[in-house]
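Supplementary Data S3. Sequence and structure tokens for construct A.
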Amino acid sequence: MRLHTLAPLLACLILAACGAYQPPTPARSAVEQRQTSMALERRPTLAALGDGPTPAPRPTSPSLSELLAITADDPRALGDPAAPVTIIELTDFECPFCQQFVRETRPQIVERFVATGVVRFIARDLPLSELHPSALAAAIAGRCAASQGKFWPMYEQLFRTHDTEWGGYPERDSKLFVTFAGQLGLDVDAFTACASDPATEQAVVAEASAVARLGINVTPTFFVNGQQLRGAQPFKAFEALIEQAAGGDSR
């Protein structure tokens, strides 16, 4: 494929998400495939195990819920904890494609599936600070609002006002987030103390690091009952996955 025909394809692949593009793994040649097949045919047969000591079990990988510290009373979760489908959103408040999802798709998911008990929707932070200078400060604001039970109002406020009231200037934007806290009815002193506490930033960074261990570096990224979906996809893409995961229980 020539370069001038490849460029539009790459543009489409990264069009709906913020972050780094990961090129696809090149296909193996026919020679490589034949060599692999021959090697497998000649692989040695393992001897049967005797009565020796039982090998130690391999450590199991943590589940998504364990890795992202999701609980039944999670302050950044919306919907019934017993819902048959869980959607985890990995988001960056300064990412325009995350904002697009929140404006266009998320309201339909909430109305159709969260409000009816089919979906539990959970947000987790993946601030791409190299691209978005105020993303970390915004994530801290969201976490501090969550500590007062006001995460979702702050979430909505941050996405609604990005690019019109804040963005790109962390010191200025952090002060505006305190104003948002007051407008949303939070205890401003407690919010300010939380936002200035190094432990809060460390918690956000630790969460982003946990996400990075999954090999994810674009936002928004979603897990629908563990199945990954990248980018600001339309409602139809979520609807199909939700109904499949719900096993007909779409209520």
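Construct B, processed identically:
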Amino acid sequence: MISPARYVQGDGVLDHLGGLLELVPGKNVAILISDNGQKRFGERVSASLKNARVRFVIGRFGGECSIEEVTKHEKAFGSSNELDCLIAVGGGKCIDAGKFIADRLRIPVVIVPTLASNDAPCSALSVMYSPEGVMSGVEFFKQSPALVLVDTRIVANSPERYLVAGMGDALATWYEAHACSTNIRGKSCVFARPTLAAGAIAEVCAATLFADGEAAASAVRKSEVNDVLERVVEANTLLSGIGFESGGLACAHSIAQGLTLIPSVHSDSLHGEMVAIGLLTQLFLEKRQDEVHKVAKFMALVGLPVELKQISLMPVIASMLIK
């Protein structure tokens, strides 16, 4: 079982980033962040690092986690002398690009997700895309993130849709881990039989979402940080991250990645929304009718798609599924 070395979550923890780098350690760092991320969080990140006397250089993420994007920043950051670590600040694709760049530079990576929309922050892998946004493969790394820092105030101030999409991604974790553990040939994302610990974490992840998902979505609508939101953010990020990587993936994510090939779906849907459709499909294929009803009811309650048309997959383009 693998996991990040450190995980820190709470209201306002972004302002403590500089001090927490002592855990890595890091006094000379690179920051990967998008233009929008720089506008929203750049000053807080810079102030925290300056207060801790951490030197830094900034690279602007272009939007796609592609080989081209990784190579560009590898060259730019590689010209900086003696970098101790790389800090990736942003959504899933920025985070995945940061992990790959850090791996190429052979330095630790610190992950600062600005959304709780997927479980990418805690894993030692990156989902790769073409510059046009079509999935092209997965890269696996030897080291997990050295530190993952999640500021729940940022999550509470983000659109509700992102938190809900994270629930779709996280809910699949338990059902996919269960499929891998009950199949004697099933393996995890680290190419080993799933551990009992990973299965237990994945099961707690799903139980947390069923219990607190609706209330957490309500908290985000009110931009409120409370215990319920903290639990669901942890489920979306840490529990799902460890659960999927060490527990294994199955049909739900296979279908989700395939859906990225359909332009209308890819442009209109978030990763977790596509995973939600993939999960329902997996449960149908497994003939687990009771679970289909339980999962679909929860999804409809929090606002996840339960019909193909909700992810812009209309009958007129159904022929693309055959291709």
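The chain has a mean pLDDT of 94. The radius of gyration is 19 Å.
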